Amino acid sequence: MESPATGASALTVTIDERLSERVPSYVLGLIAVRDIEVVKDAPAAGGLLTTAEDAVHGEKLSKADVSALPTIAAWRNAYRAVDVNPNRFPCAAESVLRRVAKGGRLPRINALVDLCNAVSLVTRLPVASCDVGGIDALSVRLAHGGETYLPLGAPDAPEHPEPGEVVYPDDRGRAHSRRWNWRQGDEVKTGLGRHRLLITVESAHEGGRDAVGQALERVGDALAGLTGGSGRPLVLDRSTPSGELFGAPSAAPAH
Q: N or C: which terminus of the chain carries fewer CB neighbours within 10 A?
């Protein structure tokens, strides 16, 4: 019998058609991790992150260089397509790249978050770990405006997304992001302890499905060292907008 933290139910994830109409090239890659003990430090994850940071330092990228990277430029265009200013609200991948390109290092949060940041730096794609222990359905869609978002680190100060911004809501009206992947919500943050997790990799550039698949392989290989294995990857896009994880075999495995 599974612990309450991991949950026994399947999770359905769907990309809304209206979002695909705005950004036809959007791809969402997913890996389900049914039950994992998240630890503070893991040499493998820490080493991957340090190596990725060193590589970015060696490129000596300016802020403009980061914005011009093909994967990042595509995200900036995607944000504009949903009426979000990418200069004020850069996507998650641009945020971490900017910070490291300045010569700094990312804060070490825990092994899973560090792993996601490492893969994001290498692939130049947004990569995130989400605690989905109490969630049965998630969608990626334009907000209605009535959803409730609990800011990361400030869950006692709820917000309501602006109508039309992209969010990741569940079937209870809780939005787990603001402005697409600009900010993750507090309810799905990956903390220490035992969790049921969903790893996400996203792209907005043409032909991004291959890049997402390669990033999922990187995540899966690293996860194998931490957990001994993970669920079968699932890749969603305009042609395959929905799938299920944690339950029956995925309807759309990565190619």
A: N
Strand partners, 197: 33, 131
| Cα–Cα separations (whole angstroms), residue 156 to 38, 109, 139, 183 | 25, 22, 24, 16
> Hey, what are 239's tokens?
């042609």
Task: Quote the pLDDT of residue 7.
Answer: 52
Q: What is the pLDDT of residues 16-59, one digit of tens each?
A: 999 999 999 999 999 999 989 999 998 889 999 999 999 999 99
Q: State the DSSP code for 151.
A: B
- CA dihedral (216, 106, 65, 75) positive or negative: positive
Q: In the sheet where 166-167 sits, what is the strand order? A: 166-167, 137-142, 11-15, 242-245
- In Å, the largest CA–CA distance within the chain is 51
**What pLDDT digit, counting tens, does each position of 90-106 carry?**
999 999 999 999 999 99
Provide CB contacts within 8 A for 23, sequence distance 6+.
78, 81, 82, 204
